[in-house]
Backbone:
């Protein structure tokens, strides 16, 4: 797996076309020039997370601030996206013995935090871990961390952020 580092001096360019969600509505960006024009008005933040499967084929999901989600968080200085993804899954769910399998498509969405417009790029990875007791990180407003049977994931995804609904998780 390619170990990318968030300290790169050249900004990482997405693959085009891509969809960015602004106010939970999709915006299609066709090329590098459109990307530069769109992203110049935002502070770019990289996050990383995982879609984790267990030996029963269940998928790990969290419930945070009224939405079903997958564990993820900001990439720290000097940390690779892969390292950040595993760390964030561990921190947000208490999960151990995580095996990183393969990258999934990135997601892109915007939000405003303290009068700053943010463009968040989340680097997703497929992961595997043995089924185990989960501990939601309540200080991050995570109310639940649960293993969801594969047959129920689509229903949970109806209550997820639109950007996540395009992840190839099944």
Residues:
């Amino acid at each position: 797996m390619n170990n990318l580092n968030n300290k790169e001096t050249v900004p990482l360019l997405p693959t085009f076309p891509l969809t960015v969600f602004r106010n939970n509505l999709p915006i299609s960006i066709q090329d590098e020039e459109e990307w530069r024009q769109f992203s110049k008005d935002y502070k770019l933040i990289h996050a990383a997370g995982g879609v984790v499967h267990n030996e029963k084929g269940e998928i790990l999901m969290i419930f945070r601030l009224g939405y079903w989600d997958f564990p993820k968080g900001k990439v720290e200085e000097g940390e690779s996206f892969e390292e950040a993804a595993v760390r964030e899954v561990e921190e947000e769910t208490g999960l151990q013995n995580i095996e990183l399998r393969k990258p999934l498509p990135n997601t892109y969405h915007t939000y405003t935090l303290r009068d700053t417009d943010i463009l968040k790029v989340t680097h997703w990875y497929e992961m595997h871990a043995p089924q185990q007791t989960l501990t939601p990180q309540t200080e991050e407003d995570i109310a639940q961390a649960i293993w969801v049977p594969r047959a129920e994931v689509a229903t949970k995804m109806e209550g997820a952020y639109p950007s996540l609904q395009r992840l190839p998780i099944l």
